Every structure is written in C-alpha cells, then in structure tokens.
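Run log // design_07
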C-alpha cells in the first residue's frame, strides 16, 4: 500500500530553513515515552466524569493492529447525568536535558468506533505551568492513528510554548470517545536537519500532469552542501502500487550547475520520485530520500502523473456529450480538469463577494454583472456549469436586517436584484447550454434548529420559501432554468428524515431536481448510498409525482487521517464513489476538491504553494496525487455510458456494476476486503480486456463463458464481455 507519513497541520517546507543552509527533513523519534506494555501499568491514571466507569488494560495484543496497546473500556453507570462528560489519561514524566532537541509530541491512538472527537493535549513543566493544544479528529476504527503535535503549537495562559527539557506531566483530555479507546505509543520526535538536498522539477512544472504517450523529463538539482564522500546521486521512480518503474545512478557534474536530467516514457498512472546521495561504489549515503518537498507534498517525494487519455480526446468528449456529461470538478486549477477529463464546474456566486457596497443599478444592471458578461467566456465551448447561489449564507453588511435572528437575514428586494444580475451573467457566460442549472442553497441542513452551525436557523417552511422566491426570479430571467436543491451536507439518517420534512412542506413544487452533497466517512460502501438514493427516489415520487433527477454537487475524502497520508486509499475511495453514484443513476457528480488548501488535504493534487501570500487558492503550481489519474480513468471509461444494474455476489465485500456504452457492456468490479481471485460469467467471448484503476490494460482469456482474475480495493474495468451480461 502506498502510504506516506507526514505531519498534520505543519509541513517542513513551510519552515524551510532552520539554520544557515539547513532544511527540515522527516520527523524521527528521539525517545519513546511509553509503548503501553504490561509493565506500563501503574504509570498512567485514567479518570473521568462520574457517569462512567473506566477499565484500563495494558499490553493488549491485537493482531494486524499492534502487539502492545492500552485498551480503555468505558461503561455508562449513570444514565440521567446532566453534567459534562469527559475523560483524562495522564502520567508523570522524567525530563531529560536531551529532550530540548524535541520538536514535538507523537501520539498513536484510536477509538474503537467511528467518531468525531475533540481532544486537548496538555503538558506541565516542573513549575506546574500548563501548555495546551486542542485538536479535532475524525476517526475510523482499525489502526492507531499517528498524531504529530509540535511543541510550538502548545501554549500557556501567557501564550508561551514549553521547553521540552522541563516537561513533568502529560495529559490527554477529551470527551468520552465511544465504548473503547486505544493508545499504542507516545514519543518525542525531532525533524531531521539536512545541509544538502535534491530538488526535482518536471518538464510540466505548473501541474505535473501528462497526457497518455508523452515523455517526462525530470530535472534534479543539488541544493545546499553535498555530504562528504558523495560521488553522485541515485533516483527511483515508483508507481501507485509501490513498484519500481524506473531507477538509475548519475555522477554529479564537476563543472557548471549541479543538475542531472532524466527522461522516461511511463505508462498511465501516478508516480513518486525519490533520490539519495551515493558514494563512488553506488552505496547510498542517506537512509531516507533527500528530495526536498514543496507545499503539501510529504518530505522526500516529488510527483507526476500520466493520464490514461489525451487532452484532445477529453475535449472531443465534452463536445459530443454537452450537458450529458456525468463528471465535473469542484475546484478546477491550472488546467487540471480538462487534463483529467472532468467537464462540469460550479464557480460559487456569493452576494457578499459581489456587492460589498450597495451597487448603482440606475442602468438596470450592476456594473460587476455587466463586466462579468464580457468575453472570453469560461464555459465556451462545451464546459457546462452549475451555479451555486448560497442563498442561506450571510449577506453583505449593508443589506443585513437589523433583526437578523430569523431568515432571511437580508432585504428580499435587494437580494432579488442581485440574483437577477447573477442569472443575466450566467446566461451570457454559458449561453450554449440548453438549460442552465441553479442551486439556491448550500448545505442548508446545517441551518437546522435548534442548534444550527450556520446562522440563522431555517425551518422547513422557511427553506421552501427561499427556494420559491429564488425560483420566481430565476425563471423570470431564464425560463428554461433547472432549479436544484436543497443540497444537504450528508445523507445521514437524521438528514434523510429532515429531507422528508422539506418535501412535506412543499419543496418538490419549487425544484426541478434534487441536489445533494452527502459527505460520509470512507469507504463509500459503508455509507449505504444505494439505499439512501433509493429512498430519495421514493420521496420524490411520492411528493413530486415522479422521480426527480439527483445531482451530487460535492463529496470528497481527505488523504489525511491523523498524521498519515494515504493517497492510494483516497484514489480508490473517490473512484469507487463515482462508480457507485453513476451506477445508481445520479445525473451529475462533482468530486471535491482540486487542490489541498488545509491540513486535511482533500485535494486530488498537492498544492506546491500552500503559503501563497494571497492564500492557497492563488497557487500557480500543483502536482497530482493518485486520485487524478483514477478519476481520469472513470471519465475515460464511463462517460457516455448508461447504468444497467448492480451486480450481486455471494461475497458481500465484492461490489460491481454493469454499464452499456455504444451498445457494448462495461463491467466494473472491486473488493473492499483483502485481495481475492474471483470467477465471473462474461458471456460467449474468447477473451476480454481488463483495465486497472490507472488505465493500464491486460487481456485475459475466458473459458466456459467466464473469467478468473484478482480483485482488491482498486476498481477493475472489464471491456469486451458478451451482451448476455446486460440481461437482468
């Protein structure tokens, strides 16, 4: 599995020089404080609120997870307790002067159930001064998650950071995370300091994304001081499976710039480049790669990817399908969407952005709208667009009602004037679309009373009224418009009940299609999406008299859990999600998000300029993750295809869908558990083509109307089966 370790919330590239000509490398443990063996019992104390009983078991061995864990069991003892619930795990420390080198605290822990958890890490020094760091975590059970917490982020009441050499007590304080909680290891870490490093650039430095068949030229530049005994460098290029695709050794130039160039011709897929110093015999002088990272890329790595299709093929597909395309991209940067093959976009419209001051509409239309209508047009010629209006978001200050405790928080007349100008601009920008799409609200389930996380609270009747007013204005300006809503952030059970309350209040009369986001913890199979989509279809049939189309305008997965970066799982999850949504009849899907912009790293591309002075969204350089070619493969194979059926297997871990494209069947199959060889019927054919998640292809023989092949978490696309597989 392709898993790279990096630190959450802090990247060494953002604090590049720590001394003259020195950069930060990987985080390395300098002292383990506890591994929670049976001998650890007595060093730790577990306490909590009086409504719980806590049981601590040290030295627990869980195969395939960890050989030695602290397991904390939690049992409810008082059911009518009204006070705050909490748990504290603490132990005394024996500080050492060598600890002064430590950059932070590393904690490996996990709850036994999926939860969202707020936790406070606290340390006390010898003078009983406390320093705290509060963090929020989204957990899935299964393995301890590695958290790296810099001491620079711990703060005392005076805002000071601790001196690690004086630490005397460690606390982990939080709400009660379910029924079980595990601690694997606690240690101090220090970033490796490097006086010499390698920088890697490709011949496409803006986005590092290549088309099928293109050569890749790498420029490897020496930075800093070359270590003693160095005679050259070794490089290694690995693919998404971790397999070595290319490697070599090169002597360092004795004259001119210390630069080495390498040209390779890779097959479609994702690639990581690493490099090491070597001596005259070719022996590596550094145990870890010394490639200097940039932005959100982990240390020791540079990346590029080769798409399974070409830009010309993608654009031709856009033209042929028009608004019939399925895939888009939420957050398109530096041409990545067209290179991947994701045609739909949804550029936000926000009132508070467009009209920070009250505009002059003496001529009928605000100046910002007329300026926006000038060419060139971003939608030309065949890049369709969804217009998210975000009517439940705050208005500009000048339009805010004095009493904004109930919706709308603004003057309807001023809002409707802005909305008319939005629609006029949309018609000009995307005039080629036969029917333009507008989304009045954005994750308005977060405005639900009694405790909305977005203000103000909206009742079902008020949500329907927002959509009714938006519909009147939009249809007046753009009669053929498609109004979609209500755009819930999740499809959790409570949200599904809330959606039914909206339909009961009359929402079906104000929308032409349903829009959803539908966030959930990965993997996508755990979210029960087929049943949720079927229930949505039943609701619209009941309240609208017909099944309304469903558009998913945003769902994504981070590549970061704790301090772990798991790029391959992100690619698997987002491509499987797209296949499930397509297979269940969703009309349009815009995966989230194009680039990394915070510590959760939702992007399908690394952001090489996270610290851009105008913010991470102003980046001018990005680099792909495995999700980029994986989504490109979904687009290449399934755009233009129609869903036929979900396949059934005796093994519940195996998922599969059958599609039809140009009269020919396409089968897509994967397994959520361990890899397994399966045999499936494929009709009366001698052989068929199997393409992997990245678009690499092999041909396998059929016998007796069936084929045998291995499945794992990466989708396999089977092309060339007989038409018999299309039958119910």
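design_07 sequence
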């Amino acid at each position: 599995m392709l898993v790279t370790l990096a630190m959450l919330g802090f990247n060494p590239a953002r604090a590049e020089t720590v001394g003259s000509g020195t950069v930060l490398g990987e985080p390395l443990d300098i002292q383990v404080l506890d591994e929670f063996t049976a001998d650890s019992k007595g060093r730790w104390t577990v306490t909590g609120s009086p409504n719980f009983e806590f049981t601590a078991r040290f030295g627990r061995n869980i195969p395939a997870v960890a050989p030695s864990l602290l397991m904390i069991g939690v049992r409810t003892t008082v059911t009518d307790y009204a006070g705050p619930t909490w748990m504290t795990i603490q132990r005394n420390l024996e500080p050492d002067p060598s600890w002064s080198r430590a950059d932070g605290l590393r904690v490996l822990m996990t709850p036994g159930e999926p939860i969202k958890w707020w936790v406070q890490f606290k340390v006390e020094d010898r003078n009983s001064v406390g320093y705290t760091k509060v963090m929020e975590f989204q957990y899935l059970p299964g393995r301890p998650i590695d958290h790296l917490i810099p001491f620079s982020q711990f703060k005392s009441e005076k805002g000071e950071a601790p001196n690690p050499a004086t630490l005397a007590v460690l606390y982990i304080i939080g709400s009660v995370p379910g029924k079980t909680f595990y601690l694997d290891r606690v240690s101090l870490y220090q970033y490796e300091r490097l006086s010499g490093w390698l920088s890697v650039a490709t011949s496409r430095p803006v986005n590092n994304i290549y088309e099928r068949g293109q050569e890749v030229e790498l420029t490897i530049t020496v930075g800093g001081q070359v270590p003693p005994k160095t005679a050259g460098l070794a490089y290694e290029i690995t693919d998404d499976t971790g397999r070595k695709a290319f490697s070599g050794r090169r002597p360092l130039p004795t004259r001119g710039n210390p630069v080495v160039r390498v040209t390779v011709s890779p097959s479609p897929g994702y690639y990581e480049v690493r490099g090491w110093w070597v001596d005259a015999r070719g022996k590596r002088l550094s145990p870890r790669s010394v490639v200097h990272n940039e932005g959100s890329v982990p240390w020791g790595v540079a990346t590029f990817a080769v798409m399974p299709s070409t830009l010309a093929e993608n654009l031709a597909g856009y033209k042929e399908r028009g608004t019939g395309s399925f895939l888009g991209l939420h957050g398109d940067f530096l041409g990545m969407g067209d290179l991947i093959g994701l045609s739909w976009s949804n550029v936000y419209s926000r009132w508070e952005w467009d009209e920070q001051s009250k505009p002059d509409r003496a001529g009928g239309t605000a100046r910002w709208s007329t300026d926006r209508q000038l060419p060139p047009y971003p939608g030309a010629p065949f890049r369709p667009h969804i217009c998210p209006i975000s009517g439940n978001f705050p208005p500009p200050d000048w339009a805010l009602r004095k009493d904004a405790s109930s919706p709308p928080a603004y003057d309807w007349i001023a809002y409707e004037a802005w909305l008319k100008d939005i629609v006029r601009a949309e018609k000009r920008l995307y005039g080629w679309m036969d029917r333009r799409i507008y989304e009045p609200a954005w994750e308005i389930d977060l405005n639900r009373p009694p405790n909305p996380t977005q203000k103000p609270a909206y009742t079902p009747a008020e949500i329907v009224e927002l959509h009714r007013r938006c519909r009147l204005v939009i249809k007046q300006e753009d009669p053929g418009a498609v109004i979609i809503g209500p755009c819930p952030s999740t499809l959790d059970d409570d949200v599904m009940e809330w959606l039914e309350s909206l339909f009961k209040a009359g929402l079906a009369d104000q929308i032409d299609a349903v829009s959803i986001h539908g966030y959930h913890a990965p993997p996508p199979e755990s979210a029960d999406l087929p049943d949720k989509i079927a229930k949505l279809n039943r609701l619209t049939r009941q309240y609208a008299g017909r099944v309304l189309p469903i558009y998913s305008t945003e769902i994504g997965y981070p590549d970061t859990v704790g301090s772990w970066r798991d790029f391959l799982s992100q690619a698997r999850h987002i491509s499987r999600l797209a296949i499930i949504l397509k297979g269940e009849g969703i009309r349009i899907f815009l995966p989230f998000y194009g680039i990394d912009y915070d510590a959760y790293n939702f992007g399908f591309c690394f952001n090489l300029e996270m610290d851009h002075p105008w913010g991470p969204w102003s980046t001018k350089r990005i680099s792909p993750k495995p999700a980029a070619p994986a989504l490109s493969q979904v687009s290449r194979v399934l755009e233009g295809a129609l869903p036929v059926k979900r396949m059934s297997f005796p093994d519940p871990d195996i998922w599969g869908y059958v599609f039809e494209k140009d009269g020919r069947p396409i089968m897509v199959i994967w397994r959520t558990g361990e890899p397994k060889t399966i045999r499936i019927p494929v009709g009366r054919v001698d052989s068929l083509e199997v393409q992997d998640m990245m678009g690499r292809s092999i041909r396998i023989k059929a016998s007796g109307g069936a084929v045998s092949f291995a499945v794992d978490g990466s989708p396999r696309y089977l092309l060339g089966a007989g038409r018999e597989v299309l039958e119910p």
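The CA atoms of residues 103 and 190 lie 5 Å apart.
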